[in-house]
Design brief:
The structure holds 2 protein chains of 2 kinds. Chain A is α/β, with parallel strands linked by helices. Chain B has a 5-stranded parallel sheet with strand order 12-11-10-13-14, with helices on both faces. Chain B has a 4-stranded parallel sheet with strand order 3-2-4-5, with helices on both faces. Chain B has a 4-stranded parallel sheet with strand order 7-6-8-9, with helices on both faces. The chains are: A alpha/beta, B alpha/beta. Chain B: It catalyses: N2 + 8 reduced [2Fe-2S]-[ferredoxin] + 16 ATP + 16 H2O = H2 + 8 oxidized [2Fe-2S]-[ferredoxin] + 2 NH4(+) + 16 ADP + 16 phosphate + 6 H(+).
Chain lengths: 486, 480
């Protein structure tokens, strides 16, 4: 028992091999490349990523449609996003990413809607192009203030060979609004990741630089890769504006089509979720010479670092204001830490999320005295892992596209105090008695970004860890009578 | 706003107001191609829920993995439970070469890692469009040694562009019987009544059916029984297969002394198969929501089995009637709009009418013409049903126009109705699937006499809460 306690939270190569031994040979070989234990000096720091999921193993991954519609385009609020194909994809991605937006429903905010062409068998046989034409007209007639339409293609659309590009072009001319075809059929690529890229390319080809702002300024920046989950973008904008910067565009949380069209005019692109939007940042750098900067607004340490990094791009006025912002919020952050750190100190966390969180939230946990002992991504690429390895301590386990089986086994062996992952994992681990937070949706709380977010983050982790409900799992008659009645 | 005015030049407020107008309603109802907030999911989700009801069964999506993630998410959100499901992760190369290689490898991995007692394979639209032949693929997978030759696999075609989640439930249920039930042994029966719930995401309902049938002393099997998978106990240990109908009882299904289907429209094909092809004594009842529908259900059980209705159930009925009369004044004459699956709506309509409630708008995205006739007959049988509009194939944006132009007092439906309800400034009582913004509702039955009590409680108390929250101080009083 004592030995097990010492071992708690400590990963070894043997542990990984033991877990993988249950697989058939081929699956074992494939999965072994996706899991590693960080050893001293980073000797084994390589990991395979962004390759196909092994068939038949329970994955948390989604598809290209989920990346394009569910992540990138969905939150653009004054556009109608048509899920083109059968009803399911639109239905399942309807309203569940918590992309908050200001506006009036049906007038300048369409985020809480689900628009679909609801394919029937006839559409599969005869094709959906005619229907798409009519559908665009109906959108414009029913929602005359709509500023644009995106056509998000589902699997059958690609398979039956519909020409959504030419329909979009024709209808865009007829209706006088941008109509953007997005070829994000779910079978393309190996995860959501390709969908992000496809959506970035669609923005580049159909929207970016199609309009000019009349009033560009020296402190104009874009906030990129913040989808305003539970108000995250609003919390981040607050800091940037207090620094004296002007946030002209948010991509794509609470954003408008005009923000996508005019983003080529800013002075700096600030990117939070690197994975989903690095493509367009790189494009803007090459094409318009706009530099881009990755930043991290989780937890006071990283926020402070990021504020200074951002301010360094600008003049002294901004740098002074940046220091003032840090000074203003430091006491509040200190109070949060003083309140929660004694309760959370030394607790071990295992993470498995997508996008930026598997590395970005590490600093926030560390601010609270917690340690991340395992992490991994659903759909990361090599560059994500290159950024992650330096942040991890020795003997942490890193897993790419972890299967449900592997994750459960690692948890069984490493016994973390808290797990942060998605809804598909949540109820499994809670049934096992592990405190858990959904780190895609903040478990319907939030924001977690920026100064507004950290006290909420700290409170939520504490709620999860110290809930008395965990102690109720075992019935008293399953325990020793003396223990129960004392 | 006239036909000739361009709304894009109008101020925001004017456009927002126009969305609530009769003129807009007409425009809205004349659309042909566009679906806005349709209240239906696609076939494989229903197939998944059906497969979860067999003990030891691993649901297996043949198609792209994103679909499996979406089905699991949606069920997770409603049930707040784990939903184990694998996929064979088909990608571009499968689109070109077919998904056989993925299925063979996928079955092998799933069998070895998740140690199921059976696997239920169903298709996503990708596999359907490219025309994968499940029958041949599964035979080839067995021959390739992915699973033992005699390992039970049920398979169903569930194209997402046909029907909805209730069609998928039906197809998977029929597939379970066709793939895994032994042939009928002539006139010999196993003496058990098989109770088939249909697409029902309330574990509380399933438990209530079992309690009611058992209390009549009828030997029964619930097939499939997802009540454990949808509501497994928290013990500190995770079980991937927490229970369900045992494989042996699925295998013995066609020797049942009878089948009773608790829903009509989510079991259309299965009902025909059991009754007409298998020639088994089969009944289908209206989902027993409300007292009258529960009476009919118990009478059907009595007629099928000859067992009397026990005194305890009569007492229970009396308590439900008591709750209905106690609360009648809060529901009588109130106008309701409803949306959801056809079976749910048929049952709920009966309940509201017996309470003196007035169904004003019924919107059913996945309803059939038969459903329209059936629900019209229920409405026609009551003076409270005479002015109700039944809208099949319509969606929640149509519903919004109805609420704005012909207002009601309450909306009944799943969580997706909350935007319409907010715009119309009326309460939403959450009944149906999915309910992702309230806890535990699925754990309490809405069927049977106890379900009737629960519905009366929810609906009447919601009206009273609303009065307390909105009334002026001079009308704020202790008793309601």
């Amino acid at each position: 028992m004592a030995e097990q306690q010492d071992q708690k939270g400590c990963a070894t190569r043997e542990m990984v091999d033991e877990v993988l031994a249950a697989y058939p040979d081929k699956a074992q070989k494939m999965r072994a490349k996706h899991i590693t234990v960080k050893e001293e000096g980073c000797a084994s720091c390589s990991i395979r990523s962004n390759s196909k999921t092994v068939p038949g193993l329970m994955t948390a991954r989604g598809c290209a449609y989920a990346g394009a519609k569910g992540v990138v385009f969905g939150p653009v609020k004054d556009m109608v996003h048509i899920s083109h194909g059968p009803v399911g994809c639109g239905y399942y991605s309807w309203g569940n990413r918590r992309n908050l937006a200001e506006g009036t429903l049906g007038v300048d905010n369409f985020v809480p809607f689900q628009f679909t062409s609801d394919f029937s068998e006839g559409d599969i046989v005869y094709g959906g192009d005619k229907k798409l034409e009519q559908l665009c007209r109906e959108v414009k007639e029913l929602f005359p203030t709509v500023k644009g339409i995106s056509v998000m293609s589902e699997c059958p659309v690609g398979l039956i060979g519909d020409d959504i590009e030419s329909v979009s072009k024709r209808m865009s001319k007829e209706l006088g609004i941008p109509i953007v075809p997005v070829r994000c059929e779910g079978f393309r690529g190996i995860s959501q990741s390709l969908g992000h890229h496809i959506a970035n390319d669609a923005v580049r080809d159909h929207l970016l630089a199609k309009k000019e702002r009349p009033d560009p300024g020296p402190y104009d920046v874009s906030l990129i890769g913040d989808y305003n989950i539970g108000g995250d973008a609003w919390a981040s904008i607050k800091i940037l504006e207090e620094m004296g910067l002007k946030v002209r565009n948010t991509w794509t949380g609470d954003s408008t089509i005009e923000m996508l069209q005019t983003a080529h005019q800013v002075k700096l692109n600030l990117i939070h979720c690197y994975r989903s939007m690095n493509y367009i940042c790189k494009h803007m750098e090459e094409e318009y010479g706009i530099p881009w900067l990755e930043f991290n607004f989780f937890g006071p340490t990283k926020i402070k670092e990021s504020i200074r990094k951002i301010a360094a791009f600008f003049d002294e006025t901004i740098q002074e204001k940046a220091e003032a912002v840090i000074a203003k919020y430091d006491p509040l952050m200190q109070a949060t830490i003083e309140k929660y750190r004694p309760r959370l100190e030394g607790k071990k966390v295992m993470l498995y999320v997508g996008g930026l969180r598997p590395r970005h939230v590490i600093g926030a946990y560390e601010d609270l005295g917690m340690e991340v002992v395992g992490t991994g991504y659903e759909f990361a690429h090599k560059d994500d892992y290159d950024r992650t390895f330096p942040m991890m301590g020795d003997n942490t386990v890193i897993y790419d596209d972890v299967t449900a089986y592997e994750f459960e086994e690692f948890v069984n062996r490493m016994r973390p105090d808290l797990i942060g992952s998605g809804i598909k994992e949540k109820y499994v681990f809670e049934k096992m008695g592990y405190p858990f937070r959904q780190m895609h949706s903040w478990d319907y709380s939030g924001p977690y970004h920026a100064y507004d977010g950290f006290p909420i983050f700290a409170r939520d982790m504490d709620i999860a860890l110290s809930s008395p409900t965990w102690g109720l799992a075992k019935a008293p008659w399953q325990k020793d009578a003396k223990e129960v009645r004392k | 706003m006239s036909e000739n005015t361009c709304a894009c030049t109008q101020p925001k407020e004017e456009v927002a107001e126009w969305l609530n107008s009769v003129e807009y309603k007409e425009k809205n109802f004349s659309r042909k191609a566009l679906a806005i907030n349709p209240s239906k999911a696609c076939q494989p989700l229903g197939a998944l829920l059906c497969a979860l009801g067999i003990d030891g069964c691993l649901p297996f999506v043949h198609g792209s993995q994103g679909c499996a993630a979406y089905f699991r998410n949606t069920l997770n959100r409603h049930l707040r439970e784990p939903v184990p499901t694998v996929s064979d992760s088909m990608t571009e190369d499968s689109a070109v070469f077919g998904g056989q290689a993925n299925l063979i490898e996928g079955l092998k991995n799933a069998y070895q890692i998740y140690k199921p007692q059976m696997i239920a394979v169903f298709t996503s639209c990708m596999a359907e469009v490219i025309g994968d032949d499940l029958n041949a693929f599964i035979t080839n997978a067995r021959n390739a040694g992915s699973v033992p030759q005699d390992f039970p696999i049920a398979y169903a075609q569930t194209p997402s562009f046909v029907g909805s989640h209730i069609t998928g439930w039906d197809n998977m249920f029929k597939a379970l019987l066709q793939s895994l039930a032994d042939p009928r042994h002539g006139r010999w029966t196993n003496g058990r009544l098989y109770v088939v719930p249909g697409f029902d995401a309330y574990p509380g309902n399933l438990r209530e059916y079992k309690r009611l049938v058992s209390s009549m002393g009828i030997p029964m099997t619930m097939l499939p029984d997802a009540s454990e998978a949808m509501d497994s106990p928290h013990t500190g240990e995770y079980q991937i297969y927490p229970g369900g109908t045992p494989m042996s009882e699925l295998a013995d299904a066609l020797n049942a002394s009878g089948f009773i289907f608790m829903q009509r429209y989510s079991t259309v094909g299965s009902f025909k198969f059991v009754k007409n092809v298998q020639k088994i004594n089969t009944e289908v009842v209206t989902m027993p929501i409300g007292i009258g529908n529960t009476d009919k259900f118990l009478m059907a059980l009595h007629e099928m089995t000859g067992k009397p209705i026990p005194a305890e159930l009569e007492k229970e009925r009396g308590r439900a009637v008591d709750s209905a009369t106690d609360a009648h004044q809060y529901i009588h004459g109130k106008r309701f709009a409803m949306f959801g699956d056809p079976d749910l709506l048929l049952g709920l309509t009966g309940f509201l009418l017996e309470m003196g409630g007035i169904p004003a708008h019924i919107v059913c995205t996945n309803g059939s013409e038969q459903f329209r006739k059936d629900i019209q007959a229920v409405l026609d049988a009551s003076p409270f049903g005479k002015d109700c509009g039944v809208h099949i194939g319509r969606d929640l944006w149509h519903l919004r126009s109805l609420l704005m132009t012909e207002p009601v007092d309450m909306l009944i439906g799943d969580s997706h109705g909350k935007f319409d309800a907010k715009d119309a400034n009326i309460p939403l009582v959450r009944i149906g699937f999915p309910i992702m913004d309230r806890v535990n509702l699925h754990r309490s039955p809405i069927v049977g006499y106890q379900g009737a009590i629960n519905l009366v409680t929810m609906i009447a108390n919601t009206f009273m809460d609303q009065t307390d929250r909105t009334c002026p101080d001079r009308l704020f009083e202790l008793m309601r």
